[in-house]
Backbone:
């Protein structure tokens, strides 16, 4: 996919915001929503194997991005969704720190400039560890019981 706009999809709830969309038949709106969903899936899946993914997450948090797809995370602008999107960006970074055993230099710079980010990343790290713990095979628990 070589269309940069794919990383900045139309938001579903924008449809209907203007008169031209409001007049569209439901089928047309459904087709458009499906097109946007496909676009989001393709873009986020390409992020999955992107070499710059972690730096991309750091950039998005640093810049306070409120729109678009960054590091495989669709950033949504309502306050609650934005909080979730930022938590997911932090999880991308925390996963890298846990897996590699070291913090990227850019993360150290970010945390130095923005102390609030330290808590965000630490909380994300706790969630990533808890998720992995939950995903461990139950056989280990049975054997130790
Ligand atoms: S991780 Fe960032 S730089 Fe890489 S494809 Fe996704 S949006 Fe682009």
Residues:
């Amino acid at each position: 996919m070589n269309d940069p706009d794919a990383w900045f999809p139309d938001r579903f709830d924008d449809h209907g915001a203007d008169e031209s969309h409001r007049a569209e038949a439901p089928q047309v709106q459904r087709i458009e929503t499906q097109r946007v969903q496909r676009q989001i899936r393709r873009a986020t899946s390409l992020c999955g194997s992107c070499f710059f993914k972690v730096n991309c997450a750091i950039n998005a948090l640093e810049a306070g991005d409120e729109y678009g797809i960054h590091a495989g995370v669709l950033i949504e602008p309502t306050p609650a969704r934005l909080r979730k999107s930022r938590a997911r960006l932090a999880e991308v970074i925390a996963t890298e720190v846990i897996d590699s055993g070291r913090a990227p230099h850019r993360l150290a710079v970010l945390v130095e400039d923005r102390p609030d980010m330290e808590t965000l990343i630490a909380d994300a790290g706790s969630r990533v560890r808890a998720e992995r713990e939950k995903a461990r095979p139950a056989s280990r628990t049975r054997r130790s019981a």
